[in-house]
Amino acid sequence: MADPTVEYKEDETINEKCGHAFKMITGILTFTTYSNTTTSGVGLDLSQQIPTDVHMVIIEPKGGFVPVYDYENKRIKVYEAGADGGALDECTDSTDLSSAMVDTRFIAFGK
Does pTM surpass 0.85? Predict the structure, then answer.
């Protein structure tokens, strides 16, 4: 699985300190095929933009899919509702997200 394409929205990003040395970045993700094998999820390493500590990443749900950032592994896990009526399930391996999650916006905070 390839990591999503990331386009940082520099004109919409506050790169200056926001008090307490916090930064905020925004961007757009374009997903392809999802992998939930050994790596579980797709990579999103924000250490170039937020070098010390990523405190919060919010990724918009889109097309019935709910992306959740895994802070420890710097990856995005994507969940969907199964037909079982239970909690959301991680997408199955090789799920095609390219049309459902194109131009998915995100915002991240940290220092």
Answer: no
The C-alpha atoms of residue 54 and residue 70 are separated, in whole angstroms, by 11
Helix (H, G, I), strand (E, B) or coil at 13: coil
| CB-CB contact of 25 with 49 (8 Å) | yes
Amino acid at 49: Q
Secondary structure class of 81 (helix, strand, coil): coil
The token pair that represents 19 in the structure block = 């008090």
pLDDT digit string, tens, across residues 58-78 = 999 999 899 999 999 999 999
Average pLDDT (36-65) is 87
Q: How far is 87 from 90, CA to CA, in rounded Å? A: 10
Q: CB 37: neighbour CB atoms within 10 A? A: 8
d(CA 75, CA 38): 12
Q: State how far the Cα of 101 lies from the Cα of 80, in Å rounded to an integer.
A: 12
Cα–Cα dist 111/97, whole Å: 31
